[in-house]
## 1
Amino acid sequence: MSAVIIDGKAVAGGVREQIAQDVARMRDAGEAPPLLAVVLCNDNPASAIYVRNKERAAERAGMSFRLHTPPLDSSTESLVQLVHAINSDPGVDGMLVQLPLPAQVDAEAVGDAIAPEKDADGFHPLNFGHLAEGRGATVVPGTPLGCMELLRAYDIPVGGARAVVIGRSVIVGRPMATLLLNADATVTVCHSRTRDLAAVCREADILISAMGRPRMVDAGFVKPGAAVIDVGTTPEDGTVAGDVDRASVEPVAGWLSPVPGGVGPMTVAMLLRNTLALAAARRSAVAAPG
Ligand code: NAP
């Protein structure tokens, strides 16, 4: 047996096409297209690439994009003020602050300043709280949402499945576990203090790895036939390495989402979906009487 290789590029392409059609319908109805604002305050080349990818994806979907590049010596207060200004700009539907922020800045304070109704990344505590309560959040962090979309696209059963998530970050692990739980999986969350990680992972029908430890997940972590979604990306020799040792896992798993080409393309597509959802929610709130 050899795993079905999940094609994240193709799934993301379909999602982006759907979003472009929705944006075109908004334009046809005489509405302004959704506007995504990004704050970039670092000189990290990887961040510049991520932001450029987001800009290109937004524009290809017919959305508007605005980039703010405050100086690298900005204070927490000045970035919070910038975020407040974007919050109160009626033309902006969604925003995100690209991480990392400079060392002198309190990144949590800046993130918390983003209005929940403009939170394109879905990291705001209020939006995360809605997700945790299982009451249909408008926005959900893009990477875990992208993993769920891949499971759906390949008809991988989630309800009743045993799911193991390696990683407990706010960006990936925690929302991933919450989404799986909300979809009726039985979920175990692992981290650096988990004992006998491989044995826990071997119980999984769905194994999601978000550690950033190249090739650590080998066949000894995988139940035969399981769906394995590799989220890890570690820069290596001019490309990125995933957490999963593909040569070892591919003969055992039922499905494998590889790095690159799996979850990565989904993250940007889900950012666009969040921006569209925020635009729709805000505009219907503005249009509603009272
Ligand atoms: P993070 O904040 O560093 O979290 C890593 C998690 O992995 C932590 O919970 C950590 O446990 C756990 N971990 C680390 N080493 C471990 C080990 N040996 N055994 C078990 N658990 C271990 O990273 P993140 O932001 O969640 O990102 C995770 C990975 O996904 C990174 O490689 C990142 O680059 C990648 N990523 C990819 C995308 C994409 O679009 N494809 C998006 C976001 C992130 P503790 O909590 O105990 O420290």
## 2
Amino acid sequence: MATIIDGKRISQEIKEELKTKVAKLKEQGIEGCLAVIQVGTDPASSVYVRNKKRACEYIGIESRSYELAEETTEEELLSLIRELNQDARVNGILVQLPVPPQIDENKIIQAISPAKDVDGFHPQNVGALVSGLPGYVSCTPAGVIQLLKRSGISIEGKNCVVIGRSNIVGKPMSLLMLRENATVTIAHSKTKNLRDVCRQADLLIVAVGKPKMIDASYIKDGAVVIDVGIHRNEQNKLCGDVDFDSVLAHVEAITPVPGGVGPMTIAMLMHNCVKALTR
Ligand code: GUN
């Protein structure tokens, strides 16, 4: 029987640990505040932002909302970030992505002080990850590592295939797996014989962004499959990049969608926010 990895339970466990930590820090007079910036009203972004603020409230840190108009200029957003960088009461800054097309996402990411970059997107934090130095790690990949570790799944020495090479997931995910001593392959849209590459994987991490693309024909028997994708199908039901029903009989363990990787992203954001209080 395959283990279905319960991301909801594990994320809750992490948030409970953080709540305790935050209460102890409060006793020492250390309090935190996360500034959450959303530009425009994209409904998916609004849901993520709401969940992030709720998680802050749950673990006991303040969140400050900045809801900016769709037409906000790059300079206006940069100016707000500069202000928050200087504000000693704010220890974390998060700009929900994507931003509207008139704003250069890279400029925004680079404007956030690396010390307040709780998303772990700033090149200085990415560079720290590459070099094995301390810094903030991107939340979704960090969440995948916690899912595996807290489910008792070993990483060391395993063949790990990561499908996807985005800055937010694929690249940091590969680096974290390498740090955990996996043998890592990064596959992507130009990879030849993707099926054969995936069939070598003891650990398959899927972040392709295509609903149910990965079926049983991609799976080595007994593999562990982590599904980072999230989509809504025609019936408005959530599904991942993996065809869960097709692969279930072939895997040792798998994350469901919803309730797998998704809740972990916010738990690890909270982890980074608590880290921001003490560094
Ligand atoms: N958009 C999609 N995922 C993320 C994330 O992890 N952080 C931010 N800021 N925006 C996102």
